[in-house]
Automatic annotation (TrEMBL):
Residues 15-69 form the HTH cro/C1-type domain. This is Transcriptional regulator with XRE-family HTH domain. Pfam families: HTH_19, MLTR_LBD. PROSITE patterns: HTH_CROC1 (PS50943). SUPFAM superfamilies: lambda repressor-like DNA-binding domains.
Length: 273
């Protein structure tokens, strides 16, 4: 469903939709929000109009993304609470500086900044280790990191454990969809799910083998097989939609040999990464 269609829906209908999406009964949410079930029912059916504070209170109890909190406010006839500032705006200078410090500080290992729909915002020099294996068409702006990873012309043919890694990425995307209910992410999931994969795709619960701590990304490279694990970092207590949706994915070597290859490449020819 489009954003425009959603914004035209009554606030009570949106509240009910989110409550059901969170798998909460009216009783569950009324207890959680410390309001009567009758009052919540009246709000959902449109018999009562919520105050601005009530909209924000229920949005907090439903753990809604900032973008959706603004949508509820608009549907209730109020001005949005949270800004959405472009990353190149002057007020975001400190944010841009922090992101670039993090990316540069992670060298000689790859790191990337993505938005809430996994579009590439910025990467460090060592990200070239991964993007050099991807068809340039997939890197044209706005490049989507998940699409570039799983597309047959992307990283997929170079991933040794494609079935495992694909299951891991799709599981991560499913959880993000469960939180955000974003139709664009749902479309991205369907697209990636349709890509061919010639390896078994284990259930997420089966991904970790004996002695494994994380699901590694095992990559065929000219220097031999390289192994990585990754971490995701986000901004704490963001009050801006752009900040709330940004994430930094940092790749670390999963074995000594991968670390040595990356450090050696950085010393001899950083641009070659």
């Amino acid at each position: 469903m489009t954003t425009t269609a959603l914004s035209r829906r009554p606030v009570g209908e949106l509240l009910r939709q989110w409550r059901e999406h969170r798998r909460l009964s009216q009783l569950d949410l009324s207890i959680q929000a410390d309001i009567s079930t009758r009052h919540l029912s009246f709000l959902e059916t449109g018999r009562s109009k919520p105050s601005r504070d009530m909209v924000l209170h229920l949005a907090e109890e439903l753990d809604l993304p900032l973008r959706e909190r603004n949508r509820l406010l608009l549907a209730a006839g109020f001005a949005p609470e949270f800004s959405e500032t472009t990353l190149d705006a002057p007020r975001m200078t400190a944010v841009r500086t922090a992101l670039r410090q993090i990316l540069a500080g992670h060298e000689p290992y790859p790191a990337v900044v993505v938005d809430g729909r996994w579009n590439l915002v910025e990467g460090n020099v060592s990200l070239g280790l991964l993007t050099s294996l991807v068809d340039p068409e997939l890197l044209a702006a706005p490049a989507n990191v998940l699409r570039a990873s799983m597309h047959p012309k992307g990283l997929a043919p170079h991933i040794v454990n494609l079935g495992e890694w694909r299951s891991h990425l799709l599981g991560r995307l499913r959880r993000q969809i469960a939180f955000s209910a974003d139709p664009e992410l749902e479309a991205l999931y369907a697209e990636i799910r349709a890509y061919p994969c010639d390896q078994p795709e284990p259930e997420e619960a089966e991904l970790a083998g004996a002695g494994e701590l994380v699901v590694p990304l095992r990559l065929r490279h000219d220097a031999g097989e390289l192994a990585f694990f990754s971490t995701i970092a986000t901004f704490g207590t963001p009050l801006d939609i752009t900040l709330a949706e940004l994430a930094i994915e940092s790749f670390f070597p999963a074995d000594r040999r991968t670390a040595e290859v990356l450090r050696s490449a950085a010393r001899t020819s950083p641009a070659a990464l």
